[in-house]
Amino acid sequence: MSTVGQLVPARIEWNVQGRITRLTRLDTRSTALPVVLPGFIDEHIHGACGHDVMEAHAGAWEQIEHALSRHGVTAFLATTITAPWDDLMAVADLARQWTPSPLSTCIGMHWEGPYLDRQYKGAQPLEAIRAVNLEEIERAIVPLRHAERPLRVMTLAPNESSADQAIRLLTDHGIHVNMGHSGANRSQAWEGMLAGADAITHLFNAMAPLHHREPGLLGLGLSAENLWLELITDGIHVHPDIVRMVFQLAAHRIILITDGISAIDQTPGRYRLGQWMVHVDGVSARLDDGTLAGSILTPDQSLRNLLQWGVPLREVVQAWCEAPARRLALGGRGRIEEGAWADLAIFDAQYQVLSTIKNGHVLYQR
């Protein structure tokens, strides 16, 4: 069992409500015990198993849930891509009306866009990127305050006109704001942070590079203690050396994500990301021009990668489990302790998932 990343032999008991009632230390040195970690929380994922969040269909989202449970995920945010407004509203309607199982792992939405910097669009469709419109934002978010799956996070570019006002509006409604897909300089990023933005979307990717005389969004993220840092650890989006550096600088602020797309658990081929069809070669997902378009990373593979790269298990667990739970105020999630929910990912000695448990109920068993 892992308590905040420290492995100890223990028995975990929980009640019928799914709350952990007792942790009992075992007097054993057996290496045959499975490894039990808190369930993974992925706050930035677009799809899996051939399905995309932008399908805006309950059946597709349920299939994504089922696929992610095979990888130890007990909570995730269904993440949009920049798209025509009607398509975003269709996703919002589903989030508002969908009444899934009590054991659903989809806990809300993350809107990546549409208020982004066209120069740093990455795989976001250029034609669907919009100028910030405060009235439009308010009309969209007010009905979502009490949605079954609320809007919890929005990514926007802090250097766009009226971005600081949009950030204040969103945070006033309890929505976290990520700064990303942006060429913001340090001053613009600072203003976004002062307005209430509390995280940076997929650090290093789709933003201006670090310069010693103009730190920009990236430099601010590495130095500002009150910003969470999303990080993709597939070894492609960010080199392992840089991943290790970020953990050395800011392990307590990292939120690991996959930015996964519909090609997760699929064979190489062409798969959907919003309106795009992307090429997947078994390692990465790219647009026709070679631009990275999300990933096919899974949280358990991220865990194995990070351990291989020398990142301590306790820091990996914090970044995959405790940090997103703290940021999103998911009380009783992300930790293994008495009183917490029994959201667990169980592994063999090679960190392959054996089973996934949500609120004390088995979602997946190998």
TrEMBL record:
Stretches of the chain forming a coiled coil according to its record: none
Ranges of residues in domain Amidohydrolase-related: 35-362
Signal peptide: none
Family according to the record: Belongs to the metallo-dependent hydrolases superfamily. NagA family.
UniProt protein name: N-acetylglucosamine-6-phosphate deacetylase
This protein's UniProt keywords: Carbohydrate metabolism, Hydrolase, Metal-binding
Pfam families: Amidohydro_1
The keyword Metal-binding is assigned to this record: yes
